[in-house]
Design brief:
It is a single chain. 58% of the residues lie in helices and 4% in strands. Strands 1-2-3 form a three-stranded antiparallel sheet. A hairpin with a 5-residue loop joins strand 2 and strand 3. The longest helix is centred in the first third of the chain and has 20 residues.
């Protein structure tokens, strides 16, 4: 089936992350559902919907630019964010480009679709001194395996800037305590080596020893595990980060990505050059890293307004 071939193409040729592959699959399902039923799927019985969708996929060359545009308009009318709509457009472009390559269609009907502009927003960060205060106060973390694990999660995210998916995917074998580095498998299965500081190294040693002493019956090979030894999962990491950032911040956003942004901003504020930050973050190009320069400029403006007598 063409959809299964497309998924394998994303996984093995494009080397997209599992998260992106799943997102693209969901986007395509939504598009087929809307197009096959002319947006009336809520009013139709399930078996009729399945038949219509299957027929559309079997006649994939019948899909036009207008079909895609109608779906995009529908998304915008339902208050979908520009960022979300853009990803769905990217999914369709990639899918139809694949179909052209496979000889199933002659033209990509999504190639001329105009993506909505995404408003530029500065990365949300937590001030460096607040994070340092959180980590230095032993009362914030329980004296137990889970307490040490939680602290290590915060230390790892802020100390290396890795993404949530990269953190969850870390294995014990990715930690090199001799070279003070960790090996990270990033987007599109691209590996990078990130240095770790001595404090993070020390906490890693404590955690690994505690993890070994727990003698979990279902011990996972991944570095971070649940209290029962199973592989840690994204929602668990998110809740842990949200919990501890709530101790030091009242801002709405308290996600693992906030610590990634805080890592990059701290490096920039302390003199690191953009290219080095780019490599540490695993960005494909420098434009993705340059957003942190805007964040730094806004910080300088804020300091200026507070400190200068004529501001």
């Amino acid at each position: 089936m063409v959809l299964e071939r497309f998924v394998k193409y994303l996984q093995y040729e494009k080397r997209f992350s599992p998260h992106t592959v799943t997102a693209y699959q969901n986007d395509l399902k939504q598009f087929f559902l809307h197009t096959a039923t002319s947006g009336q799927y809520a009013k139709l019985p399930a078996d009729e919907i399945d038949t219509k969708v299957a027929l559309l996929i079997a006649n994939i060359s019948s899909i036009t630019y207008n079909d895609i545009r109608d779906w995009i308009v529908e998304l915008m009318n339902h208050q979908q964010t520009a960022k979300s709509v853009n990803r769905k457009i990217a999914a369709l472009r990639t899918f139809f480009k694949f179909l052209v390559r496979e000889g199933l269609i002659t033209q990509n009907p999504a190639s001329k679709i105009q993506a909505p502009k995404i408003p530029k927003r500065l990365p949300v960060v937590v001030e460096e001194d607040k994070i340092m205060s959180l980590l230095s106060n032993s009362d914030n973390f329980e004296d137990s395996f889970t307490g040490v694990r939680d602290k290590l999660i915060i230390e790892m995210l802020f100390g290396t800037g890795i993404r949530l998916a990269e953190l969850v995917g870390l294995k014990d074998s990715d930690v090199n305590l001799y070279d003070n580095t960790i090996k990270v498998l990033g987007k599109r299965n691209k590996e990078r080596i990130i240095p770790i500081n001595n404090e993070l190294k020390g906490l890693l040693i404590i955690y690994l020893n505690l993890k070994k002493s727990e003698d979990f019956s279902n011990n996972s090979l991944t570095l971070f595990v649940t209290s029962k030894g199973a592989k840690a999962y994204p929602k668990m990491i998110y809740l842990i980060v949200h919990k501890y950032l709530s101790y030091i911040s009242t801002q709405d956003k308290k996600s693992p990505h906030v610590l990634r942004h805080s890592f990059a901003t701290s490096l920039l504020n302390n003199g690191a050059d953009l290219n080095s930050i780019k490599e540490l973050l695993g960005h494909a190009n420098l434009s993705a890293t340059q957003i942190y320069t805007h964040n730094s400029v806004e910080r300088l403006k804020s300091i200026y307004k507070q400190a200068h007598p004529k501001a």
